[in-house]
From TrEMBL:
Protein name: Solute:sodium symporter family transporter
Keywords (A to Z) from UniProt: Membrane, Transmembrane, Transmembrane helix
Main localisation: membrane
Membrane topology label: Multi-pass membrane protein
Keyword Protease recorded: no
NCBIfam families xrefs: PRK10484.1, sss
Similarity field: Belongs to the sodium:solute symporter (SSF) (TC 2.A.21) family.
Record lineage: Bacteria, Bacillati, Bacillota, Bacilli, Bacillales
Gene3D superfamilies: Sodium/glucose cotransporter
Localization: Membrane
InterPro entries assigned to the protein according to its UniProt record, in alphabetical order: Na/Glc_symporter_sf, Na/solute_symporter
Membrane spanning stretches: 6-22, 34-56, 76-94, 120-145, 157-180, 192-212, 242-261, 282-308, 328-357, 377-400, 412-428, 435-455, 461-479, 507-528
Pfam families reported for this sequence: SSF
Length: 530
């Protein structure tokens, strides 16, 4: 990075902060609702953008393009099929959450089951975010940032030192952001970063095709279609190590439902909307965006294979492509977008962690008489404490064996499926059983752990396919046979905001579903993968 790149990098970050600061001046961030939920003031576009940036990080930008470099377009399942779950978020889950006026996913679990089950879920979320998700986002994000822009070479230091410095800076900036402005400041910053990520990612794809075509976009496209049609097949083999095609309808679908419909750090952003209509608009926006992700999160990996051949390490394919096609003057702009992507994922999880601890433990357990302002103050203190903990933990990810790193990535499989089953039963059954929920958790954790030992070669998405159905059966059985809460009055709970649905939510969701199906037809042996 040259001097111009560094200056442009800093100016973009400062501009986005100033923009977000002025957009959020009217929100009372000293109240718990203002700090944790942005005063329930977000409109649809902002909700959509901040969910996108909470989800997207450099792990996906580099990791999925690296996977497609090896396996081809089957990797697009992580992006495109997410849109199906996001449509269900808009159609089914958000109306339920808003109807009950909950602040967290665990609030809903307490309403339908009991406080102990609620706290089990909260602890699992908090533990996962602190030990696995946030440190991995910071460390791997810093690693990739350094690979993309070569800061170790620019500063004349070792790669490890550069990564520690970068992860520390990103973490501290994220902590300051959340401490100063709460969720609303991050949400409005994300609305700019998301646009930049989309434009920057698409630009890399276009420039890569031009490079492949030796200065001709259409020649590059012709070469891509003619040279590697097998890599344009989105239907992975039954025994694929990436995404076996049967799991699209089972394990992948269940995982998407968990992540997009029951994951606190995602749902919290939708609950910050001013009403149900705006939340649904935001969800539909995310649904369209996730489909577009195949063009900058997956396709560049296939293009990189066409340019470089198969001699590059998987995770270096995208950095090599960026170094090959990105003009020097644009490095600072793209760097700011990548920086924002890492920070947004980190802060999204940090905000969810602080919210869960403050509302589920500080208020009901530690300080039962706490006012809204005291809860918000406790949240700010926790932001600093937890943020520093994660910054300290992040560099130690480098000491983990590669296999353990992969296990950390799959850690949420210990609780994601029973959590989804608990919520689905809670939505539709007047009878629920807290005992059944606990038994399902124990059953799932034991069998999932055993699967790693007994059938380690079976893809975990196949394992999730079976376990989710078993978890659902256990919870439903106990809810019907041994319910602790019988004949639940769904009308008892009142929403805190207007719950009038968005009048276009049905047909826009159907459009998304049609595009998802069309994408899988296009990227199949029927069309492009001949």
């Amino acid at each position: 990075m040259n001097l111009f790149s560094i200056i442009s990098f800093i100016l973009v970050l400062v501009f986005i902060y100033i923009y977000a600061f002025f957009r959020t001046r009217s929100i009372d961030k000293k109240s718990s609702e203002g700090y944790f939920l942005g005063g329930r003031s977000l409109v649809g576009a902002t909700v959509g953008m901040t969910i996108i940036m909470t989800n997207l990080s450099t792990e996906q930008l580099v990791g999925q393009n690296g996977q497609s470099y090896v396996a081809g377009m089957e990797v697009m399942a992580w992006e495109v099929t997410s849109s199906v779950a996001i449509v269900l978020l808009a159609w089914v889950f958000l109306p339920k959450y808003f109807k009950y006026g909950v602040n967290t996913i665990s609030d809903f679990i307490e309403i339908r089951y009991d406080t102990f089950t609620k706290r089990i879920v909260s602890i699992l979320f908090i533990f996962t975010y602190i030990v696995s998700f946030m440190p991995v986002v910071l460390y791997s994000g810093a690693l990739i940032f350094n690979d993309l822009f070569g800061l170790d070479q620019y500063l004349g230091i070792s790669r490890t030192t550069a990564v520690v410095i970068i992860s520390t800076i990103i973490g501290l900036v994220g902590v300051i952001y959340l401490f100063v402005g709460g969720l609303s400041l991050i949400a409005h910053s994300d609305s700019i970063y998301a646009v930049g990520l989309l434009l920057g990612g698409m630009t890399i794809t276009v420039l890569a095709l031009i490079a492949l075509g030796e200065n001709s976009f259409f020649t590059g496209l012709d070469k891509l279609l003619a040279n590697t049609p097998e890599k344009l097949n989105a239907w992975g083999a039954v025994d694929s190590a990436m995404v076996p095609w049967p799991t699209l309808f089972l394990g992948m679908f269940f995982n998407n439902l968990y992540f997009w419909c029951t994951n606190q750090m995602i749902v919290q952003k939708a609950l910050a909307a001013k009403n149900l209509k705006e939340a649904q608009k935001g969800a539909i926006f995310v649904g369209f965006f996730k489909i577009s992700g195949l063009f900058f999160l997956v396709l560049p990996g296939v293009i990189a294979y066409n340019i470089f051949g198969d001699g590059i390490q998987m995770d270096l394919a995208y950095p090599a492509l960026v170094a090959e096609v990105l003009p020097n003057w644009a490095a600072g702009l793209f760097g700011a977008v990548v920086f924002g992507a890492i920070m947004s994922s980190f802060v999204g999880a940090l905000s969810a962690t602080v919210t869960l601890f403050s509302l589920d433990f500080y208020k009901p357990v530690i300080n039962k008489q706490a006012t809204n302002r005291q809860i918000a103050l406790a949240g700010r203190v926790l932001t600093i404490i937890i943020g520093i903990m994660v910054i300290v933990i992040a560099p130690f990810i480098s000491l983990f064996p590669q296999g353990l790193f992969a296990v950390l990535q799959e850690f949420n499989g210990l609780y994601s499926m029973p959590l989804l089953a608990i919520i689905v039963v809670g939505f539709y059954s007047k009878k629920t059983s807290a005992l059944g929920a606990k038994i399902a958790f124990i059953f799932h954790i034991v069998l999932y752990a055993l699967s790693k030992v007994v059938i380690p070669d079976i893809h975990y998405l196949y394992v999730w396919s079976v376990l989710f159905l078993a978890d659902l059966a256990i919870i439903y059985f106990y809810s019907q046979k041994r319910p602790e809460k019988d004949d639940f009055q769904f009308e008892k709970y009142q929403s805190k905001v207007d719950i009038t649905p968005w009048k276009h939510v049905r047909w826009t969701g159907l459009v998304i579903l049609v595009i998802v199906v069309a994408s899988y037809v296009v990227f199949s042996p029927l069309v492009l993968a001949k």
